[in-house]
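> example.struct
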């Protein structure tokens, strides 16, 4: 590691409304749960009750742990959607994307084969199968199988301008950056 501050590179902008692909279904399920609670609630049941005996937390006369868990899951997934960072610290490229992180030494990168591609037109690096990733329309994060069967690590927010960096013995990096050439120059 170097003693200097890491140099960060801006991620290509993606609509923050894409988080609704996560929060929308969670809110629908939450609303349905609340409706089910209200529909069958006895008239004399308190709206909310906190007790010292299980289930500790009741709403409208029945256990509400599922609602609290649903809110926590939705808030957690929504917050991780905005965790994105690409930085170069000495001779290591550090990519953080939602729940995933990939640290790759520059020496392992095949920079002579790196290029900026349009994933919607160039099928060589198409994201074919999500193996351990987080994706929604227009946003891809984590580990994927690429079109040719090789492995890839993606932080893709803009399919038209994606920097592809092959890595020796590892997953190809696919990164959407505001200025992909700036990262490529810094790596070289």
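> example.seq
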């Amino acid at each position: 590691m170097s003693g200097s501050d890491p140099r960060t590179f801006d991620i290509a902008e993606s609509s923050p409304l894409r988080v609704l692909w996560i929060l929308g279904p969670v809110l629908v399920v939450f609303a349905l749960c609340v409706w089910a609670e209200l529909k069958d609630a006895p008239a004399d049941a308190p709206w909310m009750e906190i007790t010292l005996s299980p289930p500790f937390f009741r709403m409208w006369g029945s256990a509400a742990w599922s609602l609290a868990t649903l809110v926590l899951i939705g808030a957690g997934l929504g917050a991780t959607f905005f965790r994105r960072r690409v930085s170069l610290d000495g001779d290591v490229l550090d990519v953080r994307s939602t729940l995933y992180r990939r640290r790759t030494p520059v020496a392992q990168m095949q920079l002579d084969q790196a290029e900026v591609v349009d994933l919607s037109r160039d099928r060589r690096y198409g994201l074919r199968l999500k193996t351990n990733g987080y994706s929604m329309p227009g946003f891809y994060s984590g580990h994927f199988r690429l079109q040719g069967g090789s492995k890839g690590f993606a932080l893709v927010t803009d399919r038209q301008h994606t920097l592809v960096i092959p890595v020796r013995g590892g997953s190809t990096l696919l990164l959407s950056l505001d200025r992909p050439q700036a990262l490529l120059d810094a790596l070289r």
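> remarks
Residues 163 and 180 are 6 Å apart (CA to CA).
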